[in-house]
Amino acid sequence: MKTEKHKWIKKFLLLIAAKPNILVGGQAVIEGVMMRVPGAYATAVRDPKGIIQTDRSEFRSVTERKPKLKKPILRGVIGLFEALKIGMKTLQWSADVAMPEESEKPKNKFLESLTTVFAVALALGLFFAAPIGLTTWLFDKDNDPFTFNLISGVFRIVFFLVYLLIISLLKDVRRLFQYHGAEHKTVFTFEAGKPLTVENTREFSTLHPRCGTSFLFIIMLVAILTFAVIDSILVLIVGDIKVWMRLILHLPLIPLVAGVGYEVLKLTASHRDKAFFRMLSAPGLWLQKITTKPPDDGQLEVAVESLKAAFGEKLADYEGRKFTAEAIG
What distance in Å separates the CA atoms of residue 33 and residue 90, rounded to the nearest whole number? Predict the structure, then answer.
């Protein structure tokens, strides 16, 4: 009985000693940063006159309004679509603020829609269809599900790496990557329980374990195993697998792969003290050496203002406390 009592005391002490978790993250936008916190998100952008403008919106995920949807994998799929929606909205707002002369021009909605469709098609072609097509063309492994998906997965990762290296050479993209670094430094500062100042953010790394770059890399790894299992089932049903079968079957499963990737990233972020999870998250951190660059003080100031604006009057309730990083940023 005494041992049982001591066990519960130990659990209680561990519970009160543990860092509380909280979802804080964001993304770089044009000449600024978007930050998302519980219940809201805000974007801060420096306009051509050098003034930082902010825009804040209240937001509650559908998984919070409907707890039944907060199931493993499903919550990741929903979160991904919500993040894309918020990202597109804040990116457009940042463009209007940073480049007002462009926003004043008459907008051709058809042309904008066509551009979006082209961008999505290009991404699917480069990172989805091309690896499958090349693997089929160069290797006779169509009916060996694991080997086929391993090879196509390597192609996908190589294409992604080359793509990042090429765009990182562009001046505008480099500035975007600097704001990306500023976002990470600011989130680290908050999670460490330090006051949100430019001075405090300088000491932190630009590499964060919950970054979208790490998420994309994990999705690529998860895709290898997921599609290998799906293809194995397909082989049992139809025998020989054709290219068009893989394209038709794999494409609708991308959200499922993203949902599994979310759970894996969440797991690695909350167990960074264990060697296995450190190894799993290492490639994503290496990739961030491309997608994040050291920011200047002006960029750090924008990121700090963004996070302050997101919290608003609630910031005082969180400042000075340390937080874990279990949720995607």
Answer: 9
For residue range 136-148, list pLDDT tens digits in order: 999 988 889 999 9
Domain count for the chain, please give it: 1
More confident position, 320 or 256: 256
Within a domain: residue 296? yes
Distance spanning both ends of the chain, measured CA to CA: 44
- What is the reported pTM? 0.83
Reported as a single tens digit per residue, the pLDDT across 225-268 is 889 998 899 888 888 888 888 888 888 888 888 888 888 777 77
Look up the domain containing 116 and give its range: 21-318
Long-range contacts of 266-275 (CB under 8 A, 24+ apart): 266/326, 266/327, 266/328, 268/209, 268/218, 269/209, 269/210, 269/325, 269/326, 269/327, 269/328, 270/21, 270/324, 270/325, 270/326, 272/209
Q: What values do phi and psi take at 134, rounded to 5? A: -65, -40
| Rounded alpha-carbon distances, angstroms, from residue 136 to 79, 130, 277 | 33, 10, 33
